[in-house]
Amino acid sequence: MTASADQLSKLLDEKTRKDFPAISVAIGRADRLIWQYAAGYADLSNRLTNSADTAFGIGSITKVFVAVILLQLSEERQITLDDPLSAWLEPAQLAGIANARVVTIRQLLSHYAGIPSWEDQPGWIHVARGKDSVADKVWRPDEALEYIHGKPALALPDEKFYYSNSSFTLLGMLIERFTGNTLEQALNQRIFRPLSLKQTRLEGYPLSDRHNDATRYHRADAHFIQHAGIAGCFTPERAAMINVSAASLSVEWAAGGMISTAGELMRFCLALKNGALVNPQSLREMQRWRPAGEAQIGLSLFRTDSAFGPAIGHGGNVLGYSACAWWFRETDCALVILTNLGSMHAAAEADCASRLFSNPAIVRLAHEICEGG
């Protein structure tokens, strides 16, 4: 083990002793996995050690998989990115959803559709992640959209960036309508099987597939209690931390419902950046940047600045998990971080994978490991 790898291992071990139940990290460069490490416990109560085979929710990184399928369909000339959503979904499926009849696939992929996000609706938060959650409920793919029916548009299409999970629920429905397959089947056919992603799946179909999953914990600080609340099916774990494994990520579906391991998510990232999943033109389309708050957005990919140049990728944060997957264009280093601690609806400074990614020491050591690999 190199000195940098030893330092990063110790840093991750320290983080799991203090703040996180488990952290899995994968580092890659060019077309290969360079290094991976699993720290902490996949299950705290049973002292089940985290391992390279432990699976975690990847949250909104799911959106990048959805985008890949749509770019592939565009390459096959079965759709165009500027098709209106209404060309593929029935009026009844779009009824009551602001802007849904006029937005294009491109606008949905870039969060420039102006469609409200179900994730921002108090009723959805209570039922899906909070006090009214029901154990083992499997949500219908379109069920979350009920929480934005009748809500006003946030902006005109193409006018302004508003991050919207609703857009990706609609894109998942489009994929199912167009291909005649479930989204899970489309993911299997087009991404999971070609890349041999054997532990990667879309949660909810069925729930019995959880045998390698890390137990799900969530930060339950005062902010979370106020905005989400604690369901009877959630159980206390540590101070300000609850076990939320009774809930299902099927509620997130195409917007954030996937499960994977650090190694398999790294395989996907390397395949995407190297052009193994989409052609060069599609990859350029995914990286046509527009303003997105403090970052920039392409088609389901974000671009942010770092000490090592532009970083391209996505983060994820759902009930019980947080994740990030980024590659650095100038150094060709890629970094995946998965944890079984979610922080959505908790205070902004709550621990999550993205806070680990923003730790300069972690990114520096990852690059040193890349250079040594």
TrEMBL record:
Listed SUPFAM superfamilies: beta-lactamase/transpeptidase-like (SSF56601)
Pfam families on file: Beta-lactamase (PF00144)
Species of the source: Pantoea brenneri
Protein name: Beta-lactamase-related domain-containing protein
PANTHER family listed in its UniProt record: D-ALANYL-D-ALANINE CARBOXYPEPTIDASE (PTHR46825:SF7), D-ALANYL-D-ALANINE-CARBOXYPEPTIDASE/ENDOPEPTIDASE AMPH (PTHR46825)
Gene3D superfamilies: DD-peptidase/beta-lactamase superfamily
Domain of life: Bacteria
All residue ranges annotated as the Beta-lactamase-related domain in the record: 16-345
